[in-house]
Amino acid sequence: MAAFGTPAGRPWQGRGGSAGFRFTLYAAVAVVVMYLDQHQHYLEQVRYLLQAAAYPIQLAVNSPPAAWRWIGQSFESRERLQAENARLRAAQRDLELRSMRYEALARENGELRGLRAALPPVADRWLAAEIVSIQLSSLRQRLLIDRGAVNGVFKAQAVLDDRGLIGQTAHVGPWSAEVILITDPEHAVPVRIERTGLRTIAVGAGDAASLALPYLPANADIKSGDLLVTSGLGGVFPEGYPVARVTEVHRDAVQPLAQVRAEPLAHVDTDSEVMLVWFRADRPTAPTPTTGKSLGELKSGIPSLQPQAVPPRPLSAAPGPPAATPQPARARPQAAVGRKQPAEPQATEPQATKPAAAPNATEPKAAIPQSAPPEPATPEPATPEPATPEPPRHEPPTPQRDAPHAKEQQ
Amino acid sequence: MSAPSGGRILFTAFVALVLTVLPLPPWLDVLRPVFLVLAVLYWSVNAPRTGDIALGFFAGLALDVFQGPVLGQHALALTLVTYIAVREHQRIRSKPAFQQALIVFAALAVYEFVLFAIDGWSGHPVTSPLRWVHTVTGALLWPPVAAVLASGARGRA
Questions:
Q1: ipTM of the prediction
Q2: How far is CA A191 from CA A102, A159, A210, A236, in A?
Q3: Which of A210, A319, A341, B153 is 20 to 30 A from A19 via CA?
Q4: Among A26, A37, A133, whose Cβ lies nearest the Cβ of B71?
Q5: Nearest-Cα residue of chain A relative to residue B81
Q6: Can you give the pTM of this predicted structure?
Q7: Residue A12: its chain B contacts at CB < 8 A?
Q8: Residue B74 parent element (H or E)
Q9: pLDDT at A13 over 80
Q10: Is A58 on the interface with B (CB under 8 A)?
């Protein structure tokens, strides 16, 4: 085909050269655009603008179903609404109780892991977004939500509903964002089988109700009913959020891989709202007082369970001398070992007995002087050698607060 | 038939775009033809000077914004189809409706094949055979779509 030649046999001649020339031109533009969009990221801004331009049309196109839903909702019977309200209230109470417990457990877990391992990143901020449109064909499973860059939404942000993972944002416009669902055939989410810890990848199977796990060997320990949670690999989804439940495991003797299907826990087709989640970027290590403080601000759990300041060892040693030195008097074999080790049980003891005393023990300096006073009071009548603990107690002049405190108690 | 105005073409293209992105239940969504491609095809055959390759390109770009994983994918496919239609518009126009529908089927198959190939190259392979269903329904719906567009054009002109 003579793309650039002048078509002599053609009776018509359009503006701007022959059809072949214009075709070549536009095709070249399309190819360049595709290349830029795929390999470079120059077109983010263009996409952003186009998404903004498309949003009104998308809103308009989706208004009939939305209007239908609205009409349905406004004519719902009163009893039904009341029943639903009661149910939601009960559910909320239940969830609140659970979240309190979760706070406590998360903190305890963090404490146990100590400085070694990182806590999974904790949800920092939530934003509810309404679903504008749902596209659930076998080729594309996308949501359009009514939050965009002006709300702080960013690309590849995790989207959840109250039951599990939904997907991640694929394109973000100023007022809207497109969410690619985990069931989209183009989407894969790194998961972990909760029961065994086995990591694998769950790929969208193309229908709204199933995921495929195509990369599991036939002898993998997986069975129907296993819960899949995000593994945290890949960096998009934080660790430990429920994704799907295994529904079908098919092992073929001749196939090296097992064919596993899983059903997503999130129900996109019945949701009208989804949650966008911001996770704290830094992975808090053991709950040092500073993280404890910020956590306390973020979540409202049981106040007495909030602080649990595990004093970092070097800090506890600094104001510690008055608390640490009486100890050798009681525990003689450990007297030579050093101050730090005896300081440990002392710090935890008072917390276990009266955690409410320090509802916001954000800094260890406040927590430890409070724990110190009862300590000198008890050993003094019991031990015959008060002479040795006495001098160190007067020695540190810096903690003005506990020095008079200790004297009062004497 | 006199050439319809550019505004009329743009209006029908817009309506076709809305029909293309209108949310439908999944089973119907598979069956739905790409109305925008049908409209663009109609105009490139029947008004090759106004409805031009540029129309194909920008209609494709609009489709990309709404449902393309890669920007430019539908634009390229639709540019190609429009080019073929504009080139062969006289031959196509003189055919009876049934043969036109067959040609449209072929054009839609080319269109979908380009999409399919680009999907593969850009790393989003969707190999489900369902993606080809719309070529058949598009061809079947071609006579009524053409009739609607023609009646509108005649009514105006």
A1: 0.82
A2: 22, 15, 14, 12
A3: B153
A4: A37
A5: A23
A6: 0.55
A7: 48-49
A8: helix B73-87
A9: no
A10: yes
